[in-house]
Amino acid sequence: MTDPTTPRTTLTRARVLGTAVALADREGIDRLTMRSLAAELGVEAMSLYHHVANKEDLLDGVADAIAGEMQVAVADLPAPAPSEWKAALRRRILTAREVMLRHPWAPGVFESRTGFGPQIVRYTDGFVGLLRLGGLSHDLVHHAMHALGSRAYGFTQELFDPAGSGDADASPEMLAQMATEAPHLVEMLAHIAHDPPGATLGRCDDQSEFEFGLDLLLDGLERRAAREPGA
Amino acid sequence: MTDPTTPRTTLTRARVLGTAVALADREGIDRLTMRSLAAELGVEAMSLYHHVANKEDLLDGVADAIAGEMQVAVADLPAPAPSEWKAALRRRILTAREVMLRHPWAPGVFESRTGFGPQIVRYTDGFVGLLRLGGLSHDLVHHAMHALGSRAYGFTQELFDPAGSGDADASPEMLAQMATEAPHLVEMLAHIAHDPPGATLGRCDDQSEFEFGLDLLLDGLERRAAREPGA
DNA sequence: ACCTGAACACCGTTCAAGT
DNA sequence: ACCTGAACACCGTTCAAGT
């Protein structure tokens, strides 16, 4: 398989992670295995273990590489005035979301991480900085981070796909049975009109739904901030 | 292994799913394999395939079994007056959360599902019914479902653990390095005091954080509902 | 109809050995 | 120090065969 005339680039952690991201983009996250990644790099599986501790560490690195992309995208945004913290935060999150939309598998990897990589730390620090600029107390900033959760990184993990249930998957008799058992749900599904698929992360997580939930949270935070003593 | 004197209970889907839940509770979701589940039932792995299509179907069934527990817990709640929809919804969600807290692995399984099982449908229908009772339009109900996301089912999937970073895992030199690279984040971490672990889903998702985010969203929805034409 | 045992096509990872 | 090949201990799942 390996062409001996090709000048053999040395394996580095950065090259391993970069190739892993490219492979996940091209083949999907399920096809990213130690063996397939090694083959992509023209190397044996065990060689990877000199640059990543194990698969968990590989995925930690992959998540951090994505966070690095977000950090780059976000670095271009202008520094806001304190009064514009909310708009700036919104802008920042939607910019991060653009990066996520380029890597549809990335939300799943982010959700499964426990470690805080250096790029994730940098992105998050800028995030906290903006909230502090807006005058929010440390306590409120902390609450805000939990309340926003994955939305701070530009995605939400959808649970089920209500549109999918009303779509092609659901047979007529299934819908009829649902109508008696779940009248409210069926009635709501009949009222749903979704964006065309493709521009989405997950199945029903389209841009307008993401922004609706985000604005609900940001408006609430702004209100809480205004109510804080000393603000 | 199998004691021939024991009257052999027939294998049913319900018994397979119930045993799967018990096994996940006892050993963790990673230890729930087709082989281990079969052994627990005193049967060969392949016998399971007569009651579940494959492992995905098994996990769909497991998620729906948990939703069934939620449905039972929630059925006891009194029917509210229309004006009390928000308090009733809050109560319902926190009741669902109690079920989730009994099965710490369940959030991960819920997140990975795509199908809508019958018990999940029933729980969700009751949820939609409460929002409709409150006078919200179908459109707003739909937005609300997306905005709440997993919170409607009583959990949030935490991304990283900021407390863990400031806790035992972080070495002093790591914190010192972080202080220069992420001053806002480090300063915030210094102000955090968390509930004792054990009563949590995930690592930093304690009850008060869950309720803070939930109230932010419910308050926002109430405000949007009051602003709707014809409400 | 229901259950079995062996086998297949994968995983991540260890280990001892090469250069 | 870096990379290799074989092997280990698992997976989910197929298949043909039993009762």
Search tags:
homodimer; 231 residues; mainly alpha; Tetracycline Repressor, domain 2; 60% helix; 0% strand; flat; disordered N terminus; DNA-binding
Which helices and strands, and how do they pair?
The structure is a homodimer of 231-residue chains.
Chain A: H1 13-27, H2 34-40, H3 55-75, H4 85-102, H5 106-111, H6 118-133, H7 138-148, H8 162-166, H9 172-181, H10 183-190, H11 207-227
Helix pairs in contact in A: 1-3, 3-4, 3-6, 4-6, 7-11, 9-10
Chain A binds a DNA duplex (19 and 19 nucleotides) through loops.
> What is the mean pLDDT of chain A?
86
What is the CATH class designation of the domain at 53-159 and 204-226 in chain A? Answer: Mainly Alpha
Distance between the termini of chain A: 65 Å
Supply Rg of chain A.
Answer: 22 Å
Helix tally of chain A? 11
Determine the CATH topology of the domain at 53-159 and 204-226 in chain A. Answer: Tetracycline Repressor, domain 2
The share of residues in extended strands of chain A comes to under 5%
Q: Quaternary arrangement of the chains shown?
A: homodimer
Category by helix and strand content of chain A: mainly alpha
Q: Which CATH architecture of the domain at 53-159 and 204-226 in chain A?
A: Orthogonal Bundle
Helix-strand sequence of chain A: HHHHHHHHHHH
Unreliable segments of 5+ consecutive residues of chain A: 1-7, 162-169
